[in-house]
Design goal:
alpha+beta, 2,3-Dihydroxybiphenyl 1,2-Dioxygenase, domain 1, 5 helices, 19% helix, dioxygenase activity, VOC_core
């Protein structure tokens, strides 16, 4: 099994960049760089954690899963090929654009592009947030999490847990939704897999999460969203399973950005897998 240490980065195809740049910069507090029809968001010492590409339709372009060494990356390539999976080595241009030392990629369930990498490039200059914030929770916990709709949620769960070192955290089943939450480090979940509910289709990218170090960062961002009339998918609330206090900004491209504080962390030596029948303890009401 391949030991994945974190979600190192993610790339998203989007239909617009201007309002997204404003949300990432002035609401979330990321350091944003614009390069023509590409947008990069930096949230810590790494060159960037998020990349957005102008496209005709929204989709998850790729997710970058980090391994612990170059040797581990070579071993992962051999293991995946040995299992009959088609693996491609990254080009020099891809490595440069991702800002990593080396990378391979393959297609996972529902055609999701999975990139395994090692050696994220670190910036020499400190982070310049778009607004005053206490900082983002990354480090060994990684970027945050992504949520995907799957044609076969159970099969997708088996793929990530059998090929990679994702472990089951818990489930939430409510209304027509069935969600499985997976972790690869103490972050409650790095990956959540859902059935294609609420109008989603298999392979659809639902949202990404950014976690900050203070509840005041969330509150001030929420004030900005309310003052500027920025659309939300869900208002301020607290989740049942990971205890995150957050809200969800709706982007013009169709995916959401969850912005939150205070998620619980998993201790694999003392963790009970639970099943919840609601996603929120309070709040998180769907917005029109």
């Amino acid at each position: 099994m391949i030991n994945v240490t974190q979600l190192g980065y993610a790339g998203v195809n989007v239909v617009e960049l201007d309002s997204l740049q404003h949300v990432l910069d002035k609401v979330c507090g990321a350091e944003v760089r614009r390069d023509g029809e590409r947008l990069y968001a930096r949230v810590d010492e790494r060159h960037h954690r998020l990349a957005f590409y102008k496209a005709d339709a929204m989709s998850l372009a790729y997710m970058g899963l980090e391994v612990e060494s170059l040797d581990a990356l070579r071993a992962a390539e051999n293991e995946l090929r040995g299992k009959g999976l088609e693996v491609t080595r990254a080009t020099a241009a891809e490595r440069e654009e991702r800002a990593v030392l080396d990378m391979i990629h393959l297609r996972g369930p529902d055609g999701v592009r999975i990139e395994l990498f090692f050696g994220a490039v670190l910036e020499k200059l400190p982070l310049k947030p778009g607004r005053a914030i206490s900082g983002f929770v990354t480090g060994d916990l990684g970027l945050g999490h992504v949520v995907l709709a799957c044609a076969d949620r159970d099969a997708a769960t088996r793929f990530y847990t059998e090929h990679f070192s994702f472990r089951l955290t818990d489930y939430i089943f409510w209304s027509e939704a069935e969600a499985t939450f997976l972790h690869c480090n103490p972050r409650h979940h790095t990956l959540a897999l859902m059935n294609p509910c609420f109008g989603m289709v298999p392979g659809q990218f639902n949202h990404l999460m950014l976690q900050v170090k203070s509840i005041d960062d969330v509150g001030r961002a929420y004030d900005i969203v309310l003052e500027e009339g920025i659309p939300m998918v869900m208002n301020l609330g607290r989740h049942t399973n990971d205890q995150m206090t957050s809200f969800y900004v709706k982007t013009e491209s169709g995916f959401a950005i969850e912005y939150g504080y205070g998620g619980v962390e998993v201790d694999d030596h003392d963790w009970d897998v639970k099943v919840f029948n609601a996603p929120a303890l309070w709040g998180h009401a769907l917005q029109a």
